[in-house]
Structures are given as structure tokens and as C-alpha cells.
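Bit of a strange request maybe. I'm writing a small parser for C-alpha cell strings and I need a real example to test against, not something I typed by hand. Could someone generate the C-alpha cells for this chain?
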Amino acid sequence: MSRRPVHTLAELSTILDSLPDYVYVVELETMRILYANRAYTLLMGRDDPDSVIGKTAYDLYPMVLVERFAAQNQQIVTDGQTFHVLETLEMHFGTFHVDTYKMPLYGEDGAVYAILGTSRDMTEMERMRQTLARRTEELEQTNQLLIASGGFLQSVLDNQSSSIAVIHLDGSIRVVNARWRWSVAENGLVRDGRNGLGLNYFTLCRDIIGSGDEAASEVERGLRALLDGTIPEFIFEFQQINSDGEATWLEIRASRFMSLNAPHAVIAHTDITVRKAAELRTEESLRHEKELSDLKSRFLSLVAHEFRTPITIIQSSLDMVMYYSESMTPDRQESQFQKILGQLKRLMALIDEISFLYRMQNSVMNIQLAPVAIVPFLEQVISEVELVYGRTGEISLTTGGLSGEASFLLDELLLHQIFFNLISNAVKYSASGTPITILVGMNETALGITVADHGIGILPEDLKRLFEPFFRGSNVNERNGTGLGLSIVEQSVQALNGILSVSSEVGAGTTFTVSLPL
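Reply from user aminoacidic:
Good idea to test on real output. This should exercise your parser:
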């Protein structure tokens, strides 16, 4: 049984043409191409291998490459071994990087007559290698720069006024600045000589904040949400007592960043006491400006109403007298003059109230202490109120065992302002016939006087503004008033170093208590 050859020459040619490598045979002496596969043919810019076969290296390559190939061929002949080289081919149509193997072909006489070469195009791989080399060099330069700048960055951190720490996702402290190191030393948190490095921020949280478990828990929740990516930034302000026992305001501000594929947070602890004080001053200034604006509005409202009404009555009465006096009886004329006089007194009383309040608020009131028999004094004030409002028999005075001669060192003018206004309000805001009680009592340190009524009462939301100038309760309706009385009462009580308190129930009445030191 005969054996067929493994491959015919045509089959071998077909196999070689299918390879991506450049396969060629070059005659040793003439450098003439004896064989070229399809890949080699295409490299030379031809379509048909026959157009390459028969050409010499001098026809296809630059001279510098022909000389290199000739030297390689001589070495192959000398060594009698396969030759391997990674080389760059600078062709007129481009530059190629190839991985070449060459071996000698022997004739029947045993001498080398040609060289078989196979070259694999490594151009793209070489480009990748060069790109990788450049990138590696750039990374190395960057690494060296980071190493060199590490000291600079640490110096920048150390010169910050805030205590700064960088923590990992697990809470471990990775970087701290000089202020942080000083802070933990100041608070006795230095452990193992590491100034907190490597320790867990969340474990130290209560010691670092020093403001109770609730604040520490809020900080931990916020930082964990930041590290988880739930929130973009975390800011927390709290008050702390420092080592000198002084209250300071601190701010914790943290932001998130990624390092080595792990989330980290840079945390800054900043003393904001000065800023907080400025904010409080600004808030107080704004509040004061708003109060002044409200006061102005209420004053203008007072002028528009309380001044206009008596002026209108005065004008009306004057018109009556001027134009109709001849037809008016003397009694009718007297009645009109009394109206004018009454309204003038009302205006003067209003001006006196405003003037008195101004002097009290600007500390230009001279306190003149003198013995005051309190029981006769209160009886006189009650009589004045009854005369003004034309209501008698409703106000009762309980002296608590004090005799009519019992005297106390007080300012009678201030005392009159206090109790005339309190008793007047009790009458004004109570229905006719409703009892009003004044109770006098004393102990070893103070004289106490209570004025209680069963009137309309004061709304809870109005109590906090009750003593503001020109403020009037929401439920006073059309009852006359300037909104100055209780403000004058409060200023007068304070001038006497006393205490003023009030309790009230809507629809049930109001009780004012004045306590004056003995």
C-alpha cells in the first residue's frame, strides 16, 4: 500500500498564503526573491506574488536595510543556525516592527544557497508597548510628584486653623493635621503615641465632641450617611464646654471622596464661636429693627385713632359754638365747652403717658422714695378710677391686716402709674357690675398687691407681647385704649426693683400681682 505525500507543493503554497506572517526565500549571493507568500506580497504593495518573485532586495528595500539583511545572512551562513531578531523596518511607505526568524537553505552540494525568512508584524503590539511604557513613566513621575508633594500637603493641612482628620469607610482615622494632634492631646485622647491615627473616629466620637450622647449619635449617623453616599455633605453645629469651662461653638463639616476604590471622608472641626456671636448680634439687631418697625406702626395707628377721635370731637364742638352760639342756651354752650375740655384732658393724658414711657425707657426718670401709706393711697386710686369710669361699688380692697398708717418707702408717682393702670384695665375689660378685688399682703421681704378681675381675659398668644408699647390684645374689640398702660406698669415696677406677674383665662378674668421689696 503506497503512501500519499503529506502535502504537495501547491498545498504548501496555499497554506503559506493563508498565514498572516510574511514568508519569503532570498537567494544568498544575488539577494533575489525566490519565493513570497501573499502577506509578503501585500507588504510590498503588490497583488500578485509573481510581481515580487525575481526582484532583488535592492529593488524592494532602502539600501540601509539591504546592508543590514546582507550582514544577517552572512552571520546565518557562518553560524549555520536559525537567526532571530526583533527589528524595525523603515520603509518608504511606513514604519513596521517585526519579529523575524531566518534559517539557511542548503543545496545538493551541502552549501547554503538561500535564506528562508518569516516575519510577524508586531507594529500594533509595539505601539501598545510604547504607550504602556509612556504611561508607566508618567505614573512613575506622578508617583514621585505625590511623594515629593506629600510633605507640602501635610504642611498645608498643619497650617489650617481647623482640626482636620481623614477617615476610612470603617471609621478608622488615616490622616490628621497638627491642630487635630493638639486637640486630642488637650482632651487626653492620645493613645499609644499615635495621636488618634488608626483609631476609630466613631468610637472616639463622644470624647471628641464632648457634648452628650445625642449629639455624638447625630454626628455618627450623618457621617455614615455621607460615607454611604446617601448625602453629599454633612454639617453639624453644637456647643461645647472647653477646658477652661467656657462655652464655645464648634462646627463639624465633612465631605466624601474616593481613594483606592474606597470611600473616605475629610472632617474639619472648626471653632465658630466668633461667627455665632456675630450671627446672634445680627439676629438681635434684626429683631430690634422689627420691634421698632412694629412700634412705629402701632404708634401711627394710635395717632390715627386715639388722637383723631378727641380732635374730631373738639372740632365738632367748636363748630357748634362758633356757628350756632346765638341760638344755643347757656347750658348748651357750657355742655359743648365741657366736651372740649374733656377731650383736651384726654389728649393731655395720652401725651403724658407717651412722655412718661419715654423717660422710663431712657432712664431719665428720677426715683424719689418717700413714705407712702399704702391703704389710703389705694383707696384714693380706686376713687379716681370710679370717677373716671362712673362705676362705683364694684371694686373691693382687702388690706390683709394692714392698718391705714402702715407706710412703705416708695415712689408715689410710679406707684400711682402702676395701680391706676391696673385697676383701670380691670374695670375697662370687665362687664358692669362684675366684682374687682384688690388684695394687699406682706411678708418679711416684700409687699404684695394683687388686682383681680372677672373680665374678658387675655389670649395665650397675646401674653408674651402684653407689655410691649402700643400693643393691644386681640380680643379687646372696640374698647378705647392706647396700648401703653401695661408697658408703663412694667417699667415702673422694674424701676422699683419689683416683680410683676400675670395669670389669665379667656372669659374668666385676669390677675396681676405686684411684689415690691421692703
